[in-house]
Amino acid sequence: MTYKCVFSDIDGTLLNSKHQISEKTKKKVQQLAIQNIPFILVSARMPKGMHYFLDELQIKAPMVSYSGGLILDENQKVIYSKGFSVEMAKRLYKYIKYYYQIPVSFYVENHWMVDEIDEGIEEESIITGLKPEKLDLNGVKKVHKLLVIAEAGIVDRLEMSLKEKFSGLKIYKSKDTYLEIMDESVSKSSAIQFLCDKMKIGLHQTVSFGDNYNDLDMLLLTGKGFAMANGAQGVLESIPTHTLSNDEDGIVYALDNLVGE
């Protein structure tokens, strides 16, 4: 296939296990830019946690944050925004605090707000290079995402109980210890469809890369979706096309060797 656009997850996909972009990958992405092939980051991260990578890659391109809840154009202006109400966010917060007594992260555009800081929040701060703000919902009209970081067993139980108690939401694990909560209409695949329509690129002309469960819909939608070798077992089982791991420049390997197969 001849591809005209590449969509990539960040953590565990673009970044290696040292949370870095390899020089080989940077060079490949810059080659794509010269060929006018957009390399679009698609992540659960907030925009502020993604800008750095565009600068490091030395490219201008649209960006999908909050797994499709917020889309920015190549000039970093918001062109799509979807969240849930503050009232819903407060209901979720009250339930989680009452039954689980664990910190809850609120994401509103470029703001990351927390009610308390524990080891999980500190680790997320180190990974993203961002510092959380004190929780303050005054003036907030909608919330793009809630995130709970806890032990895997707690996350499993919380996921089940929230799905039983609440409707209209997308509730899923982005990794074993991370539970993400967003509006049910938000997805990486819907964001890709939105951007492809805007850029007048057919889905059959697109390639995507991901490693975790919140990447599945994206990998299944694009013309060719590649699961990284380091991906979650369920992702590797669901996606037929695999590439090398994030520590082996899997994106570069697939684009150079596997896309045309």
Automatic annotation (TrEMBL):
It holds the Pfam family Hydrolase_3. Keywords: Hydrolase. SUPFAM superfamilies: HAD-like. GO terms for molecular function: hydrolase activity. The keyword Hydrolase applies. The keyword Hydrolase applies. This is Cof-type HAD-IIB family hydrolase. It comes from [Clostridium] ammoniilyticum.
